[in-house]
Predict the structure.
Amino acid sequence: MRYVDNTMLRTLARCETAAALRHVLGYVGKGDESGPAAQAGIAMHEALAAYFRTGLVADAVAALEPYRTYSDAHGLGDPGSRFARLSYENVLRVLTAWIEDHPREQLPFTVEAVEVGFSVPLTDTVAFTGRIDAIVRSRHNGELYVVDHKTTARLTPDWVAQWKRDVQMSGYVWAVQCTLGQPVVGVYINAIELQRLPTSGRPCATHGVPYAECGSLHSQSQFILVSRSPMQLAEWRAEAIALAQQYEALAARVTSVADATQTRVQGLFTGGCTYCTFRDFCLAGRPPAYASTMLRHDPWMPHALAVEKEQ
């Protein structure tokens, strides 16, 4: 059985060369490490998972604590750091402000399960895998929904709008319906802005007190409610199957970097090259001899997402 996840399907749809190098051969560009924004997002996910399980602030704060080491090691809290909004201290303030605004008993849903891994067959030989942040039941209509935590620098209208048709949400709804055998209406996207909260002694024009006293009130978040119709899920499944079959064919013919250089580069037309980890390698002409100096082996393991975490 082969496994694909949402990231793999997106890559396959964007560019065959990127899919071959990343998801068949397991390479990334050298120096392509997840930065502070990604690490802060992961830390927030861990903290929110703890809070969803118990509703206790102390558990959420304890789950965030390991991020302090990363923040300190990378100087995120240093005066003048361009990543100050992602320092442990600021992320902690954002987290606690969110919890204060969202007591567990006042959430628009009750929590059924947290950090749920899944593996659902797409074809006889390929399974779709992933991990759900939470499965919940609406207090309003009693229906099942998925929760997906998202962090961003700014909650802009364009950023919010992108999730209305995002394929990740379609895949989650489809997978949970298949796993539970029950209808799933849609997704609550828990969108949290990781912006630096003010802490100075200057007076705030909005609240009439020093920023040090009202900083948490400047925290921004919202629940974005996304629904998926049976027709939309059928469309997602049909395209996912086609991409899964494309992945099988690609994996069968690509066994080396030399093979990968014979694949198509649709990213030139889809715009996928802009932030691609293989951009420089492709600009150099995709020479196999450069692989050892421009690429780093870091296998992608989608099946690991389906493994349940220890609770």
